[in-house]
Amino acid sequence: VQLVESGGGLVQSGGSLRLSCAASGITFGNYNMAWYRQAPGKEREFVAAITTSGATNYLNAVKARFTISRDNAKAMVFLQMNKLKPEDTALYYCNARRTGVYWGRGTQVTVSS
Q1: pLDDT value for 39
Q2: What residues have CB less than 8 Å from 87, skipping those under 6 apart?
Q3: 8 Å CB contact between 113 and 13
Q4: Which letter, b or e, does each residue of 63-87 get, where b requires 16 or more Cβ atoms within 10 Å of its Cβ?
Q5: 3-state class of 27 per DSSP?
Q6: Residue 20: enclosing H or E segment and its boundaries?
Q7: What is the spatial distance between Cα 53 and Cα 41, in angstroms, rounded to a whole number?
């Protein structure tokens, strides 16, 4: 199983980024997918999730700014991040969950003030 994140980078406050996660080695459509993040010195926290049926859930701090989506045909999950804030700076991880849980290695997002 492999989850590979991409799309991170350095952006100014108020800017946007779109993260992607490409999955392989799993029947993607059977997995609930999520994004987590971990800032330096802090614990990893949940950001957004999307179920196999497309239902979504978000961390309150990112509601109305972030949008999670999935493309089952391409085995990919996305996180559109708008109106980014310096406090969004973190390493963002892709997560796949069914009977097992799998993690990617992360993509760095840095938001400058």
Answers
A1: 96
A2: 39, 61, 111
A3: yes
A4: eeebbbebeeeebbbbbebeebeee
A5: coil
A6: strand 17-24
A7: 35
Only one residue has tokens 């979504």, namely 56
Token pair of 79 as six digits: 């996180």
Q: CA 24 to CA 21: how far, in whole Å? A: 10
Average pLDDT, the chain: 97
Q: How many residues does the chain have?
A: 113
Give Dmax (Cα) for the chain.
41
Q: What is the pLDDT of residues 57-109, one digit of tens each?
A: 999 999 999 999 999 999 999 999 999 999 999 999 999 999 889 999 999 99
Per DSSP, what are the bridge partners of residue 24? 2
Instruction: Report the DSSP pairing between strands 9-12 and 17-24.
Output: unpaired
Angle at 79 between CA 75 and CA 84, to 5 degrees: 165
Distance CA(23)–CA(58), nearest Å, equals: 21
Q: Using CB atoms within 10 A of its CB, is residue 4 exposed (0-12), middle (13-18) or buried (19+)? A: middle
